[in-house]
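FORM 12-B: Structure-to-Sequence Request
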């Protein structure tokens, strides 16, 4: 009985071999299907947080500090960890724009 079951499994595998992927062939196929691409976002820069710590005292971050009092400490800790952030930059190159169109 067990031998018959093994033979049935083998025959199913042969019949459906076009649908069976071994690990290496599946990995290869998935890599070809999902090649990572480069994404470019206009006016968005990926910067290290430590480059922004000098701007923490600006009014831009006031509303965040109001909602989350330890924001500055949290921000500095993440900067020490080497984290980065996306920053929207106007064409003029300024980092952060205030609501009244002044640049920081």
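FORM 12-B RESPONSE
SEQUENCE OUT:
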């Amino acid at each position: 009985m067990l031998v018959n079951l093994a033979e049935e499994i083998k025959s199913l595998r042969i019949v459906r071999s076009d649908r069976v992927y071994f690990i290496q062939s599946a990995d290869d196929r998935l890599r070809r299907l999902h090649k990572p691409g480069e994404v470019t976002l206009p006016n968005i820069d990926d910067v290290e947080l430590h480059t922004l710590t000098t701007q923490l005292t600006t009014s831009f971050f006031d509303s965040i500090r109001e909602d989350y009092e330890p924001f500055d400490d949290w921000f500095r800790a993440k900067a020490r960890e080497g984290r980065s952030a996306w920053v929207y930059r106007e064409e003029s190159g300024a980092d952060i724009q205030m609501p009244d169109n002044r640049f920081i």
